[in-house]
Each structure stands twice: as C-alpha cells, then as structure tokens.
Amino acid sequence: MADPDLDLLQTALKRRWSRGPSQKAKPYVHAFSAAERRGTKITAKVVGNHGTYTVSIQGDTQGVTSACSCYIGKHGHCHHCEALAITFLDDPSAFKIIKLKQAKEVHDLTDVRAYLDSVTWNHTRLRTDRCVVLLRNWLQGYEVFPWELSRFLPTYRVWY
Questions:
Q1: N or C: which end of the chain has fewer CB within 10 A?
Q2: Number of domains in the chain
Q3: Is residue 52 within 8 Å of residue 100, measured between CB atoms?
Q4: Whole-number CA gyration radius for the chain
Q5: Has residue 160 been placed in a domain?
Q6: 18 falls within a domain
Q7: How far, in Å, are 9, 78, 82, 105 from residue 110 at the CA level?
Q8: Burial 78-104 (b: 16+ CB within 10 A, else e)
C-alpha cells in the first residue's frame, strides 16, 4: 500500500540532499539511534564531538525544515542533518513508524501519551498557551488574578 507521507518525505530529502555525503557527514551516516518517523518528520539521536545530539527533519511540498541540537544546527545547516537524511534515504525501514494520533482520538492516559508523542512541540505549546489564557480569563471572572495563581498551582509562572 502506498504511503503518501513517505513519498513526500523522500522527494523533499532527495531535492535537498541529492549528492553523496560530505566528508564531515560520512562518519554519522547509519550511526543514529532512536530513529523514528511521524508522518513526514524523522527524528534520531547521534553521538557527536560534544555529546549526543537530537536531529530532526520535516518534509513538505515546499522542501525541508531541519534542526539539530549541536552548536551549529539550530537551523538545520549541519552535517548531522545531512547524515540523517542520507541514512533515511538509504534505509527508511530502519526508522520506527509512530502513528499520528488526533486529539479527538484521546480517551485515556495511554492515548494522551501517544497523542503528545505524535505532535510537535510548537503545536503542543500553542494549545497549552490557549488553555492557560482560558484558565486565566475564567479565574479572573471569579476575581482570582494571575499573580494569585501560585496559591492554586505552585508551579504556575505568571505570563502577562
């Protein structure tokens, strides 16, 4: 059965990284652990010169967005991202497929974990920020103000 996400991701990766690996990327090709694919996004970890880095690449019809936790990889322009793309193109089956779960499919705590694992941090943060605003507005209706929330939620950080 055809997988449109896989096709889209492979096409985007081939457009961005069409040649063989650079000298800096070669040692990292096929050296990844915890390799996963969620739709059109791949993530993995690799041991580099200064620790273990988390590398991610998201493909779409416009191209790719990539990032790495190494000191030069914030915007994905590092050899770890290149190596991850080449590793995936060489053997997509080496990446564990994580099924994307929709919010409406969440019914219990197991579903919550699966849902959170399937969404991006920015998406989760956006939803959380909306909930905090709604909670703040609701509490202000009862004359409980943000600076007083620490009485109810000890870890609450006030956002004005």
A1: N
A2: 2
A3: no
A4: 20
A5: no
A6: yes
A7: 28, 36, 34, 11
A8: bbbbbbbbbbbeeebeebeeeeebeee
35 backbone dihedrals φ, ψ, rounded to 5°: -80, 125
**Could you tell me the CA-to-CA distances from 48 to 19, 25, 41, 62, 70 in Å, in that order?**
22, 11, 21, 29, 8
3-state SS, one letter per residue, for 100-120: CCCHHHCCCHHHHHHHHHHCC
123 and 44 part of one domain: no
- Quick one: which H or E segment has residue 7? helix 4-16
**74 and 136 in one domain?**
no
- pTM value? 0.69
CA–CA distance, 11 with 104 (Å, rounded to integer) = 30
How far apart, in whole angstroms, are the C-alpha atoms of residue 28 and residue 80?
A: 7
**Structural domain harbouring 18:** 4-97
Report the C-alpha gap between 21 and 116 in whole angstroms: 33
Q: For residue range 89-118, what is the model confidence (pLDDT) as tens digits?
A: 999 999 999 887 777 777 776 777 667 666
- Residues, the chain: 160
Least confident of 68-77, 91-100, 133-142: 133-142
Last residue in a domain, options 57, 80, 97: 97
